[in-house]
Design a protein that fits this description.
By secondary structure, this protein is of the alpha/beta class. It is built from 8 helices and 10 strands. The two termini are about 30 Å apart. About 5% of the residues have low confidence.
Length: about 300
């Protein structure tokens, strides 16, 4: 596993740094000798032996999500995220956009995708960063997710990313102050840890559904409702570590087939509860296409001085 983002990792057992992994080696080792196998797909399970009380997304949920996202339904959100994270990285690292020079960086910018899933959004963001100012210097990236099924796909999609199985509610295996951007798309939000790993000028970028998100099909598909106070609750949850700098809304008009509706119901939190067979029977009675509105909010947070 050759990736300069490895320099930002710390061992979850002892907190020490990892040593360089030589070509052909199939494990990740820290300087104290703790060893974690590199799966044949390219990801590393740092949770080995630790366990977690949270349920990972199943293979079926991950497959439904990838099918839905690869159809391009949420591409406008991915493009908006690419623009936001590009701005965040260039603000955190002014040297990423030098005027009239290509002087090298002391270290490459680092994007941490907390809850990367199959890596769809991170992929689009990295493409945006590579084509923008400073992209010639390269971008490091780390993807964390609790689902090994998701990371198998993420490792194929983002082969240059360090993809790790990890529980976001545990201390993150990342050195303090190393990330220029932390991205959280529909994933748990550990404010204290995000603040710890962010550089002083780094930003936390959080994507949440707005109250009207997929309202036209939510009840039909057995999806969990979006509470009106969700936006205020997000800001409150970040208080003490972050302050809200900016919000951007992304609204997307979709035309979904019955298969799309089935996928969107299975790919999110509702996928842990919905009966797939009942859902399949339900969507059979739907018209060939259904008009749906997807409503997202991108919230950009800055670290508090004491965080």
């Amino acid at each position: 596993m050759e990736n300069s983002a490895l320099d930002a990792l710390i061992c979850p057992v002892c907190g020490l740094e990892f040593v360089e992994t030589l070509p052909g080696e199939n494990s990740l080792k820290c300087i104290d000798g703790h060893c974690f196998d590199i799966a044949r797909q390219g990801y590393v399970n740092l949770l080995s032996g630790r366990g977690t009380k949270f349920t990972q997304d199943t293979a079926e949920m991950v497959a439904a999500r990838e099918d839905f996202l690869d159809a391009g339904h949420y591409a406008p959100l991915a493009d908006a995220l690419g623009e936001v994270v590009g701005e965040v990285v260039r603000d955190a690292r002014p040297e990423c956009a030098p005027a009239g020079t290509s002087r090298p960086l002391v270290s490459r910018p680092l994007v941490l995708d907390a809850g990367t899933g199959a890596g769809y959004y991170l992929d689009r963001i990295l493409v945006n960063l590579a084509s923008g100012p400073g992209g010639e210097h390269g971008i490091d990236s780390i993807g964390l997710d609790i689902s090994k099924f998701a990371l198998r796909r993420a490792a194929r999609r983002n082969s240059g990313t360090v993809n790790l199985v990890w529980d976001l509610w545990q201390p993150l295996p990342v050195e303090a102050g190393r990330a220029d951007a932390v991205l959280v798309v529909f994933a748990p939000r550990n404010a204290a840890e995000f603040a710890r790993v962010l550089a002083p000028r780094g930003k936390l970028v959080v994507v949440t559904p707005r109250p009207g998100h997929l309202a036209q099909i939510a009840e039909l598909a057995g999806m969990l409702g979006i509470q009106p106070q969700k936006e205020a609750e997000l800001v409150q949850a970040m208080a003490g570590h972050f302050h809200l700098q900016e919000r951007r809304e992304v609204n997307v008009s979709l035309v979904l087939s019955p298969r799309d509706i089935q996928n969107v119901a299975l790919m999110g939190p509702s996928g842990h509860h919905v009966d797939p067979q009942h859902l399949a029977r339900t969507v059979l009675g739907l018209p060939a296409f259904t008009a749906v509105q997807a409503e997202f909010q991108i919230s950009i947070f800055s670290k508090l001085a004491a965080a």
